[in-house]
Amino acid sequence: MKLIVLDRDGVINQDSDAFVKSPDEWIALPGSLAAIARLSQAGYTVVVASNQSGVARGLFDMATLNAIHAKLHRELAQAGGAVDAIFLCPHGPDDGCACRKPLPGMYHDIARRYDIDLAGVPAVGDSLRDLQAAAAVGCTPWLVLTGNGGKTRQGELPPGTRVARDLSAVADALLQEA
Ligand SMILES: [Mg+2]
Ligand SMILES: [Zn+2]
């Protein structure tokens, strides 16, 4: 199977320093849903792995997060794409969980769920912790320059990180290389 792992905020939708706390605040980035649609149509199974510490911080609850993701799924379906599953870490930075990126817990869950080796699987993020979690399990980290990506690019990146303008450019590159 062809799998791709995406961060959510700053990759698929606009990020916010104040957190994305409601469906209304969830706003797709230009071209991101069309990019996922092209990946879906090319046979990719698209999954999301997202830190959502706003849950632990009490900024929104799981019901609201589900409503946000219902909007994501709905808009994506209208664009002709699909996300197979959304893995999330609802914990805060001090909770000591194994799933909050840069730890690779969600990626291990993904490998188990799909029963595949993640070596070389593209994993797209806009923050260093996305790239670090991806690299820890042998995924190929892709940095997009949307969201925090411009800032992240200034720092040191895990070896082998590929850089693309946005999710659309990642899809272009992957589909061209196929
Ligand atoms: Mg992000
Ligand atoms: Zn967690």
From TrEMBL:
Domain of life of the source: Bacteria
EC number: 3.1.3.-
Binding site for Zn(2+): C89, H91, C97, C99
Transmembrane segment boundaries: none
CDD domains: HAD_HisB-N (cd07503)
Any one annotated GO CC term: cytoplasm
The protein's name: D,D-heptose 1,7-bisphosphate phosphatase
Organism from which the protein derives: Bordetella petrii (strain ATCC BAA-461 / DSM 12804 / CCUG 43448 / CIP 107267 / Se-1111R)
Organism placement in taxonomy: Bacteria, Pseudomonadati, Pseudomonadota, Betaproteobacteria, Burkholderiales
